[in-house]
Write a structure and sequence with these properties.
It is a single chain. The protein contains 3 helices and 5 strands, in the order E-H-E-E-E-H-E-H. The longest helix has 18 residues. The chain is of the alpha/beta class. The protein has one domain: 2-Layer Sandwich (Ribosomal Protein S5, domain 2), CATH 3.30.230.10. The radius of gyration is 13 Å and the shape is globular. Strands 1-4-5-3-2 form a 5-stranded mixed β-sheet, with helices on both faces. Helix 2 links the parallel strand 4 and strand 5. One of its GO terms (molecular function) is 3'-tRNA processing endoribonuclease activity. Keywords: Endonuclease, Hydrolase, Nuclease, RNA-binding, tRNA processing. Its EC number is 3.1.26.5. InterPro entries: Ribosomal_Su5_D2-typ_SF (IPR020568), Ribsml_uS5_D2-typ_fold_subgr (IPR014721), RNase_P (IPR000100), RNase_P_CS (IPR020539). This is Ribonuclease P protein component.
Length: 109
């Protein structure tokens, strides 16, 4: 994961939300914009739960990102957790990520 920077400011997140393509799953939403460098952000709102649940949701999403890092095209990503994420098995979440990854690769940029 060398060379990956995190999105830090509201402006950076808003840029990805407005200009990016949203890929929805029952457990998370992935916003993506092709770019020349790899930047990543993780979001879990209070709808997901209290701080402990939100942090766990972000850890699960980070684990997904690390697992698929080599297969992801370079760009800016924002993973947004949904409340169902915490009740789901990691295997099921992994399957959803595989589907989204295929959709990203099929799309013509």
């Amino acid at each position: 994961m060398k060379g990956v920077q995190t999105l830090k400011t509201k402006r950076e997140f808003d840029y990805v939300y407005k200009r990016g393509i949203a890929f929805h799953s029952p457990y998370f939403v992935l916003f993506y914009i092709p770019d020349k460098d790899m930047r990543i952000g993780f979001v879990a709102s209070k709808k997901v739960g209290k701080a402990v649940q939100r942090n766990r949701a972000k850890r699960v999403l980070k684990a997904l990102f690390i697992q698929y890092f080599d297969q992801l095209p370079i760009g800016r990503y924002v993973f947004v957790a949904k409340p169902k994420l915490l009740g789901a098995d990691f295997k099921r979440i992994d399957q959803e990520m595989t589907k989204i990854l295929e959709r990203i690769k099929r799309r013509k940029w």
